[in-house]
Amino acid sequence: MGVLEDDAGLSTKWTLAILIAVTVFIWGFHPLKRWQYRSFPGPRGYWVVGSLVDFVRKGAHKVFIDWNAKHGSIYVIMFGPRPIVVVNEPEVARTLLLTSDTRMIARGGQDLLSGDDSAMQKFNLAGMNDKEKHRDLKAAWLPMFNSASLGMSSELLNRSAEHLCSNLSRYARKKQETNIWRDYGRMTMDVVGSVAFGVDLHTQENDGSENSEEAEKLIEAAATLFSENPLARAGWPGLVTLFPWATPIIKPLAQRFPDSLSKRTSEARNKLRGTVKKLMEEARASQAAGTKAEPVKVDVSVSAGEQSAETAARKPRALAPGSFLRHMLNSKHTATQQPFSDLEITAQAFIFLLAGYETTANTLAFTTYCLATNPDKAENLMQEIDRESSQGHVNQEQLRHMPYTEACVKEALRLYPPATALARQLTQDMQIMGHRVPKGTGIFVPVMAFHHDPKIYNEPEAYKPERWMEGTPEYAADKHVQGKWMPFGEGTRVCVGQRLALMEARVALTHVFRRFTFKLSPGQVPLDVSCPLLLKPTTGIFVTPVPRKEE
Ligand code: HEM
């Protein structure tokens, strides 16, 4: 009797264990979600993780090109348990972007933020997902990028570009290699300092002084936030992505026992937030005192033997009259006419610093690489520069007469868009290309794949600035469909800094290619790129600047 009862108990336990194992196994394929999106084709994906593994392993710059070829115009991928629809048709994608205004929140990293970090994220223009508040914020940002404001910024952009050239000329004199990606990074951070905060952040000095060491730390912190995809390693963000329902348990654990990447990014965020807050406090204090906010003045005395252009570039700066911080301090909410709070302004300044730094540096580095590998195109560019702006500061009017310079940047942004895909989240059910897509679904628009599509671009892998100039055979050879070029996104969430970025890039290229050509170091072709968050040269772009004329 006793033996029989034991046997029955044992087999019940086994049955239960097998049942649980089978349920967990089936659950790992997310059958309900897959059923809901059954009309869509898409990669099969792995157990629990779905398509995340391929996304992280191949990188967002490559994986969509592969998936698009296999699954066609619209398909679904599984980010763990989360279905995301990929709209692989430029015109349809553009229409969708024009009507949908909510950015998809990347669960992993953002769900784990708390305190000031979380506030910075939620209140900044890019992270704000409340429709009304986003409109209000964007209305406050936009005047910073109209022609009049850009005209004021132009002077600062020219000075930063001159400073970059003085650094490049030092390498040129020594016939020394440099990682031009980092040089451009120092320049774009310099621009953020002057345009956003009206101060000299000293990021281009690189002379071992206290200021320059502090500046290096700032750059390092900004670079850290772009350096790794948090989903690429086994850590807390990955767990939240795979098991979002467990966030309330995971979050306190992640805070108590942070993994190494979380530690580094948290330190980086602290550094950046600290800098932004300090600048904000200084600006607020000087506003309260009724004085102009003064730049952080530090003696940047010129070392003996430097040239006069360098001397001009290294003088302490006057405060930019139209700096973003001052503009925001004077802005008001449209509906209530209340001024923005310190937290709101700090969050905007924080995202300006991040968004304005790496994107533009990568764009300039990629453009320089494209020109160094296509000397005939570099020659065309230099002819235009020599004709339209051979010396001094380049202004908006001159830039208007430099279509080839603009085309060089546009074409580099086509081949290497820093943001390789755009993300949205539907706030209502939608019908897309014959499929019903439920409210709440995440959407990816694979911009980089559009930019390399041979059905749109003739010889898509070739660098041809002429394809952006009407009347040329290269322009005629491409197909002209809306949405085929979207490095800055589209619709209400389009990049607010687009005009500044394009102007900054053209000003920098004008100064740089007026004075130098570039010899690529061995091993640079083909360029090794990766896409942890933004598309970037994996380690950099190594070149030796060669002066065009005797310096
Ligand atoms: C070449 C340089 C740049 C590129 C390629 C770039 C690209 C982008 C892209 C793709 C988006 C998302 C658009 C969308 O979802 O439709 C974006 C948004 C944004 N960018 Fe840029 N960006 C650049 C420079 C800048 C600069 C200099 C700033 C600084 C002012 C900036 C500030 C922002 C902000 C605040 C947003 C969020 C806009 C919103 O949600 O309304 N960007 N950018």
UniProtKB/TrEMBL annotation:
Keywords: Heme, Iron, Membrane, Metal-binding, Monooxygenase, Oxidoreductase, Transmembrane, Transmembrane helix. The chain crosses the membrane at residues 12-29. InterPro entries: Cyt_P450 (IPR001128), Cyt_P450_CS (IPR017972), Cyt_P450_E_grp-I (IPR002401), Cyt_P450_sf (IPR036396). It comes from the Eukaryota. The keyword Oxidoreductase applies. Gene3D superfamilies: Cytochrome P450. Pfam families: p450. Belongs to the cytochrome P450 family. This is G2680 protein. It comes from Coccomyxa viridis.
